[in-house]
Amino acid sequence: MIQPGLVLGVSFGYLLLLVAVAAHGDRRAGQGRSLIDNSFVYALSWGVYCSAWTYFGSVGRAASGGVWFLPIYLGPMLAMLLAWLVLRKMVRIARSYRITSIADFIASRYGKSPLLAALVTLITVVGILPYIALQLKAVSAGYEALTGGPGQDGAAWWRDGTLYMALSLAGFAVVFGTRHLDLSERHEGMVAAIAFESAVKLAAFLAVGVFVTYGLFGGMGDIWARAQAQPQIADLLSLDGQGFQGFHGAQWFTLTLLSMLSVLMLPRQFQMMVVECVNERHILRASWLFPAYLLLINIFVLPIAIGGMLIFGDGGAGAESYVLTLPLSQGAVWLALLAYIGGLSAATGMIIVETVAVSTMVCNDLVMPALLGSGRFARKGGDLTRLLLNIRRAAILLVLLLGYLYFHVAGEAYALVSIGLISFAAVAQFAPALLGGMYWRGATRAGALGGLLGGSLVWAYTLMLPSLARSGWIGAGFLDGPMGLGFLAPQRLFGMAGFDELTHSLFWSLLVNVALYVGLSLRGRASAREASQALLFVEVFERGQAQPVFWRGRARPEDLRRLAGRFLGAARAEALFRDHARETGTALDNLTADARLVDRVERQIAGAIGTASARVMVESVAQEEPLSLGDVLEIIDEASQVRIYARELEEATVELRAANEKLKSLDQLKDDFMSSVTHELRTPLTSIRALTELMLDTPDIQPHERKEFLAIILSESERLSRLVNQVLDLAKIESGMAEWHNTDVDLKALIVAALRATAELFRERGAEVVLDLPDQVPLLLADPDRLTQVLVNLLSNAAKFVPEGRGRVQVALREQGSELVVTVCDNGPGVAPQDQAGVFDKFRQGGEAGNRPQGTGLGLPISRQIIANLGGRIWLDSQPGRGACFGFALPKGGADGR
Amino acid sequence: MRRRDGPPAQVLLALCGAGFLLFNFPMLLVWDQPLTVLGLPLLPVALFAIWAGLVAALAWVSARRGGRGAKDAPDDNKVDR
What we know:
heterodimer, A: disordered C terminus, B: mainly alpha, membrane (chain B), transmembrane helix (chain B)
């Protein structure tokens, strides 16, 4: 046993540590270095799913039902497989429309209905009470187990203790959740603290698990071997024990489905997963980290449960505190204390987040509409942020006290797990309206209202009230049907017996829920606002920034600014208007209250007081034109028109830009061409002129000198005319004015002739030419002169680049499919990869600038034009250092008669 | 969904369907045999093994398709403050 003082001291110290963690998280957020902008912290914060139920209840359940504790964690695993699809959409919607609670989410989807918001809030509050009671019960039971308890006769003292605990937890929730009014933003500190708690409870539970499995026993195998000696324990781990008889399969399925829905619908999960999400992409990693966390925290549940039964020899209610009593019985006091801290983490984490989430709903969806409804309040001005915070604080306290009350009324009669399942079944009622609303545009407010109301009434009748009846608060006769009507017996509705109460309740409640939801949606017509909200929700991914704004009317900017100031505080209202002015490019004083501004103000206020209340407030300051369904369609049309125009404009811009780039490069090319041509022309001209001047100035020039000079002048003139011819040639071919004399051509003979013409070149360079020609090739239809030009070009090119004295050029002709392919490969320096694309451009000569061989730089461009005109293609294959390989292919049939 | 990033929907749905099947009756009857694996009863071992397998598969699918998308993810993923 441990002294109560020590337990209380350590617990309080731990809670203070949490506050410190939260304060650190808030401080880091303030500095812009968010602690929680991290998928690991995000995943850990989801660990709030593991409350005291997991920590204490799972072991208890395992001790009585074997693997039946598991479906509650398998469901989340299945849900997480779809998180990237479903949860991401929820996050995107919530972020786009400043949604801060599940009530807000549902109400906003169905036309911002205050009634729906209030209904969801009521269901949540009532449904969540058993869950909060569960945490109180677990912590107080843990305390009793640790300190030896007050004994049965000291109950009065302890009851007050639980009350104090509830009160102090309310205090912590207030500190964490309502320090400032920033619900539209996030509680960075709270999330950091919850992630920390998740790590602590996992570590503590694993520590106990290792202690029991490897300290008290010789591993899991040893525990199981010993358990087999006791048939009632051995039976636990086969389904035969309780058997797959009748409807047990249905119960397993129910539990899986229930937890699958709850992991998304529970207020604290919604808070952590959706509202506190920093970055959608974190979902990707968190969606597998979270089930991995669940797996880890469950891995020792069975060993602890069976180990406890082996040591204590029972499997009853005591099993729920095995985590504490096992270490304690072995004298491991500090481990027991650590385990208690872990349990405290689990319970407080759940309570803090749940009450903060629920208090937001109570404030925004129950209290605010009532306040706004009273005319006196609406007329009064002034900053309301203080009031909002106080309402939330009161709501937290109220929820915890109600939970405490339920703990007293019904807590004793049930095991932890059963209590929790009552809450799970309550929040499962949200699933049709919420999930359906995200994917089905036709769902209407009437359907959602009917489904929720019907489903939750059936839930209350078949699950909640029986739990109270069991505890004796309602006459036990109620369980046999009100006024003796047997077919209305709450746990055997219409004689459906054989199910456990949970499966029975879930079946009937979801049946009624879905039937009403679908039936009423199909029957009724959506109002304009419902239709517009449906569109905004279902197609949230399809619309980027250009979302349609469904608002028409008149409003004055001053009114809007005053309104924003009341709910957001003067500073943030000012910032909001300044941002809008900057984005629309108007001066702050000239702002007109157009639909965009009104929408923006409404969304911001919605972050503080909920979408439904925000709607009411905006309505109160603006003269609105009610929208008809036709108007909504028109606005959607306009928006999609705008989108289409925007996309077309974007495409046209891209095209224009490309065309402009092309023009620019053509222009550049032309300039380059001109400067190259003039440069090429000037070189021979200069030498001709210099030699002529020299001869003019020197009348007594020696005959042999004169002959030499004249020879140079002649060759330079030839070069000039060759260049001019080539430029003209190229221009003619490019413009399609060239004449083509196509006849049947023997390509092999052409190659031999071209080689003969260039033989002198190769001989000068000392290069060897290797021929690789087939015996016979089909004839081509082509212009033989042009083709010879190409061949001579390629050959003289190769001759220019081969190394002096060791040159080797290989000429090959091949028949490949429907083409004849000619390749001319040299063993020169090759062409660098970055230059290869440009070799066929005009005046783009190979080689270093300094030792560039003689040539006009027009050979390859002309060749390319000729080959293209003959219907073939030309290419270069080269690796630097391994020579260059030019090749061209021509279709066998020849070109089409040009 | 506008951008094609993250794991493909079909794969996730298929995994979820497989999980539903493996975790429920009547497949449970297959795991419910009087056999032991390394000295441990088959039923819990099978459930935990399937669980671990699904986590691994999800992690793999997420990393494979998500890693590439993450790099060019535009900033609009970020919640504006």
